[in-house]
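Write out the 3D structure for:
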Amino acid sequence: ILMENLVLYSVEDRIATITINRPEKRNALNPNLINALTNAFIKAEEDDLVKVVVLNASGSTFSAGADLEYLQQLQKNTFEENVADSNNLKRLFTTIYYLPKIVIAQVEGHAIAGGCGLATICDIVFATPGSNFGYTEVKIGFVPAIVSCFLMQKVNETIAKEILLTGKTFPAEQALAYKLINFVTNSSEIHLKVKEFALSLCKESSGNS
């Protein structure tokens, strides 16, 4: 797959839509996808016509986290390679988190591990009732350390520790109660609701980027 096909990018009505496009792998993260996503967000940041960014995904899963091949590769990597890899993911997360434009996550289907991390760092999160969230990395011996500092900005420490240490998955309604997400919207309406919300933000922030 060409790298640019891993992430789709379009702009309409001053809204940039960034779509994770790896549905055959449940939009699992690997180094190419992480780099392509980072580049897409930088592109949106530099585009003066863009006021709001929407992050969504192709297929029925928002993102299943890191893919298996990638995780197996990490175990063979040198310490230096793994540090570089962590820095890659950190660069993606910090690019989104500090983006001077509002980022909305449109979560349809499961957002697990790194996929949950991606949703966590967006400013506003819409999800469907059937979406599940969770930091499952602990179950395979990984610590989601990079995202934990972002998670603590959204949920309280007690909840953060519980979901990071147990690795449990939980439905959208629970994510809403945790204040991890903002809205639970039916899958038939989520696209429209996100667009309406993004357009209203564009109007309200027309004086600045």
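Strands lie at 7-12, 15-20, 52-57, 102-107, 111-112, 124-127, 132-134, 169-171, 183-184.
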